[in-house]
Every structure is written in structure tokens, then in C-alpha cells.
Amino acid sequence: MKFSVLCCDIFKDDVLRMSAALDNRPLQIESFKAESHLNPDKMRSVVMSKLREFSPENERILLMFGLCGNAALGLYSDNFELVIPRVHDCRGIFFGSAAAAQDFTSNNPRAFFASPGYINAGLLPSKDTFERARAKYVSEYGEDSADFLMEAFADQFASYDEIFYMQFHDSAQSRRACAECARFMKWKFVEIAADKTLISDALNMRIDDGRFFVLPRGKILKASYDDGIFSI
Amino acid sequence: MNPDFENLAESVRKGRKDSAREIAGKLLESENPADILNAILSAMADIGARFKAGEIFVPEVLVAARAMNSVLEVLEPVLVKSGLQPKHCVVIGTVFGDLHDIGKNLVAMMLRGANFKVVDLGVNVSADKFVSAARDNNADIVALSALLTTTMPSMGSIVEAFRKSGVQAKIIVGGAPVSQEFADKIGADGYSKDAASAADLCKRLVA
Q: Most buried by CB count within 10 Å: which residue of A3, B69, B75, B130?
């Protein structure tokens, strides 16, 4: 089957590495910036625009992201079948399924997650991100309000006390950056192996209904509001 | 009209908490506290409308709400003495399993700005806690917040718990992944897309 991959750039390196070993390789591997998650409507529009650019030779497009704050809802293609893992967000892909991610999160409710791709996408909190935020607030709202706004900025990380570094592939640089983030945020640093089977099985077209949703051509992706996550 | 009313409203809109507090203190010497309250509520309504329209963003709302709170600190004791207390109560919290509170806090601020009594239960709140807080405070409305699609389902369990408990409060839901479709599916009484709309929705529900 001729297929291509459209992934969040958090997974781009992993998809590229795993695809290199395939007999039946994707025709194209495209990605979009992880920061577009901050605005689900924008992310949907970016994904739709990327979908329109794939070669008509493709039969299927593998989407390597999840529901992502409902950004995936409303996706459709008249030209290809779309295959999307039944996961809420990148944690489901890190852990191999939404259920495994949910189990892990229930047992570690104060955990922040990062992977080499996540770190490369510039999403880790750091001294630099805090300094840049403060400089912006000072210039726009003045010193006094900047202090107050920085409290709100820091609040978004207040519910975490540990960071799990999900090891997809060896990256000493990413590991160091993650450990440095842990030191800066005063979080416990924990390193665990990611479960690569969801990505690997998708690339090998081992698409089962339990872990993946296949959206037929011309249909619109909707939420199921249950464990299946997606419906038509 | 005393020009300091407009100066007060402008200070709240611009998030200048010290000057807002100072002007309110000065106004209290000669003006009706209800008129001062109306001036800051109208400033916050303006902030809410501009936020909804995408003209301003979260930091502007936060600094305006801080200025409003600094005025309320001065005003509240006087309002209580004169019997001008909020008539309606909203119990608010982030649902069980979810530790995010920025959106919820923003809604709480906007509700205070719309003259509701707000009982904030914080984050990771169970259905039982919502039900007992609503009962204890005789709440008119219970506002449920969730940031994650993984924690949204517990909103359904909370609605169910309220229906079983017999507590009559209206239940509204909100948060980034929540939609009107989801609110209808779980039988919530209302959904709002953002903090300013949440205040409008609450006003409609108690009207």
C-alpha cells in the first residue's frame, strides 16, 4: 500500500529513523510545528493544508498525533484514507496506547513528560523561557504587573514535581537538556524507555481497530467521547 | 457626574491597581458605594467584551482583574455594611484528575467582576466535594473546568452525581477541549467558550 506520514514534529525524528528500516517506506514524511497545539483551530487548519499537498499516489496518510485538545476533530480528506492513533495526546504515543498513558498518569499525576522530539521542538520550560516571558511582560505591562504576570506564568507548571524523559532514541544532548530543566524547575528527573510499538506498527501497516481509527475518504473525524476517542 | 468614576474605570481597564485603589478610596468619601461597584463592574464587563472579541489577551484580563480585586478589598466592608452583597453564588473547580487552574481562576475572576459570590474549590475536585459545597453554600450554579480530553469524562460523572443528590444548582462546563456538543451529551445546563462568556452565561442562568 502506498502511504505517507503527517506527524507532529515531536515524532518526526522517530518516524524518520523507524521508516529507514522499512521495506515499504512512506512516500513522504511531513510534519508541522508542535507549538501549533497552543491553538487547536490553527493546528487543524495547518494539518488540513498539509493534507491537501500530499501526492495523489497515496492511498493512506498516517497521522502521528492524537486528539490534541480537539485539534483533530473536523479533519477529513476526499483523496486518502486517514489513519490516526486512538490517543488523546503525545503521551499516548509515548506509552503505546491511551490506556497505558492513562494508567501511568493516574499513578504519577504530577509528572511532566518530554522526549528528544519534544525537547527539540523547544517546549521544555527553562531559565531562558522564563527570562523571555518576563522581558515581554516588562516591556508591555511594566515591572509591577510583570511580577504578577510571571506568577501566573509559573502557575502553569505548579502542578508538576517530576519530569519523565521518554527515551525514543539515544540523544545525550536531549537527556542533558531534560536533566537541566529538572534542576531549574526543582523537579525529580526520571528516565524511562518509550514504547515505540504504536509508531512502528503504524508504519508497518499493522492497523488494528483497537489502537487506530481509520477515517474513510470524504468522512469527517468526530469525537466519540469514550475510550475509542474518535468516530465518524 | 464625578469624573473620578471614569478615572476609576480606566484604571481598572488598564490594570493600574494602585491608582484604582486610591481613586476608589477617594470616591468612598463622597459617593454611593453601589455606584463605585457599578463603575468597576462596568470596566470588567468592557474587559470581558474585548477579550471575547479577541482585542485583548489573558495578561490584560489578569491585570485588570487584579486591579478590580484591589478595589473590592476597599469596597467590600462598606458594601457589606450597606447590604449590597452578591445575590447569587457559584461553586467552581477543576474536575477530578485535572490539576490545571489558570482558566478556572480566570472564570472565577470574571464572575467576581460580575458580582457573583464565588466559592473556589481549587483543582482535582471530586463529585462528592462539588455536591457538598453546592449544598453547603446554597449555590445557584456549579462551574466545572477541565483542560484535558482525558479528564473531561469526569464532568459527566459529576452531572450524574448532582442529579442523584437532588441538589438543584445549574451545572455549567468549560475548558479548552469542552464543546457545546459535549455539554449536551452529559446533560450540563450550559457551556461557555471563554471566561467572559461564562460570566454572561451565569447572568442568564440566574435571571
A: B130
Assess whether pLDDT exceeds 70 at residue A207: yes
- CATH number at B76 reads 1.10.1240.10
**CA-based nearest residue to B153, from B192, B98, B93:** B98
Judge: A69–B123 Cβ closer than 8 Å, yes or no: no
Does the distance separating the beta carbons of B123 and A159 come in below 8 Å?
yes
Size of interface A-B (CB pairs under 8 A): 60
DSSP string, B85-139: --S-EEEEEEBTT----HHHHHHHHHHHHTT-EEEE--SSB-HHHHHHHHHHTT-
Give the pLDDT of residue B72: 86
- pLDDT of residue A14 exceeding 80, the answer is yes
pTM comes to: 0.82
B153, closest residue in chain A (CA to CA): A225
| Residue A173 belongs to domain spanning | 97-193
Instruction: Inform me whether the pLDDT recorded for B23 exceeds 80.
Output: yes
Kindly state whether residues A119 and A201 are assigned to the same domain.
no
